[in-house]
Every structure is written in C-alpha cells, then in structure tokens.
TrEMBL record:
It comes from the Eukaryota. Coiled coil: none annotated. This is Annexin A13. Belongs to the annexin family. One of its GO terms (molecular function) is calcium ion binding. It holds the Pfam family Annexin. Keywords: Annexin, Repeat. PROSITE patterns: ANNEXIN_2. InterPro entries: Annexin_repeat, Annexin_sf.
C-alpha cells in the first residue's frame, strides 16, 4: 500500500489467496506491524487501509471479502466427503449451482452491460467448496470457465480480484505459477511477488511449482530466474529451486 502504482495488484495477490484462518491472522499481524512502525493513527486496521487505498467496485469487493465470515473445512471433513462423494454434508450444492447461474445472468449480452455488484457479492461471500461447485457447474452448463467469462465481461481491477479468488479455490498451484510467470515476464521484475512465493513455498511445494511452471508455460523456471535476476538475489532463488 506504500507503492500506489502496484498497490491494487499486490493487495489482491496476497489477500485473495488467503483462507479464512489466514485472513484472521493477517488482520491481527497487520495491526502489530502498524504498532511496530509507530503509526500515529491507532485506529488503523487492514480493512480500513485497504478501503483507503482502493476505489470503486474493487474497494467494495475487498471490503466484503475481508469482512465476510466464510466457512472453513478441516482436512478430515474434506477427505471424508471426497471419499464418499457426499459433499451435501458440507455445502448446499443447489445453492452453489444457482449462484453460478446468477453470475451468468448478471451479463446482458444484448446491451453488453454487466451487473458487477451481483458478481462481486456472490464471489466475496462464497467459501472454497462453493466456488469449486460454481466453477464445475459453470463449465458443464455454459461450456466455458467462469474465469474466462469474467475476463470477458468484468473490467480491471475487479476482474483480477475475482479471478484470483476463484483460482485460489480451484487450483492454488496453477494460480501461483501464473503469478510467478507474470513477476518474471514483463518490462520490470516484480521482486516482492517473486520473493513472497519463493519464500512461502520453499518448505512445501516449490519444486512442484517448478514442474507445473515448465508444463504450463513451456519455459524453464530456472532459466527464467537466471535471465531476469542477478547477483546474490539470483543465487538465493536458484538455491531454493534446486536444493534437494
């Protein structure tokens, strides 16, 4: 938020990838950071600062996303539902499918207008399983992904927030691979995004992200890091990528 020209994208890439429990921690730690930095306004919070630094429908989306209490599912519940196929014990499948249909209906192809408010309210309030059901139902019903549909009919920067939230629920690793590619490919290296993903995933699935990157992007992540970075920073990234 201290870098206005990139604040919107950075906020979306971080916040919209968070689970409910991660958001709760993020809000708490953000206040601790403000205190450590000696912020004069003691009433500042993550939500208030995000509202200040965004505008329009993106502001409304981020406000809803940060303030909505979405249901979280323990791994054991997800595992049981996946084994039995009985997802109805966790969510109302019919409601989620109707939400997908409401998103499709929010676009009037005759007038080429989009009810962005309806779409953002649905996505901001949906939990991870509801989004997955919406994604599948949209594809089955309309023969296109909900991400492609939103990309065609919703303007930036709201489009980026919606699609980031959806992909975080549907395929987090593919989303992170796309963020890695965008951070490396462009006029300017996106060091904060590149560093965040490398450090946060170095102990879990960075090697898997490397493989997916090569499969989906047709380029070697190692080679791109060598081409786009230099010095000690390059050495660190390569060490994280290639360590056993």
């Amino acid at each position: 938020m201290k870098t206005p020209e990139t604040a919107g994208v950075a906020l979306v890439n971080i916040i919209c990838c968070c689970s409910p429990s991660e958001l709760s921690v993020l809000k708490k730690v953000y206040v601790e950071v403000l205190e450590a930095k000696g912020a004069d306004d003691k009433s500042r919070t993550l939500v208030k600062d995000v509202e200040k630094e965004t505008k329009g429908n993106l502001r409304e989306y981020m406000r809803l996303f940060l303030n909505t209490e979405r249901k979280a599912f323990p791994f054991t519940q997800l595992q049981s539902a996946a084994t039995t196929g009985n997802w109805e014990t966790l969510i109302n499948l019919g409601d989620a499918e109707r939400s997908a249909e409401r998103i499709f209906a929010a676009v009037d192809t005759r007038t080429k207008s989009t009810d962005e408010t309806t779409i953002l309210q649905i996505i901001a309030k949906a939990n991870i399983l509801e989004i997955r059901v919406m994604y599948d139902h949209f594809m089955d019903t309309y023969n296109q992904t909900i991400v492609d549909f939103i990309s065609k009919h919703v303007k930036k920067p709201l489009r980026h927030a919606l699609n980031t939230t959806i992909m975080a629920a549907v395929d987090m690793r593919l989303l992170l691979v796309a963020q890695l590619y965008n951070s490396l490919y462009g006029l300017k290296l996106d060091v904060p995004t590149l560093s965040r993903i490398f450090i946060l995933r170095s102990d879990t699935d960075l090697k898997t992200l490397r493989s997916i990157f090569e499969q989906k992007m047709g380029s070697s992540l190692v080679d791109m890091v060598r081409e786009e970075t230099s010095g000690d920073y390059q050495d660190l990234l390569l060490a994280l990528l290639t360590s056993e």
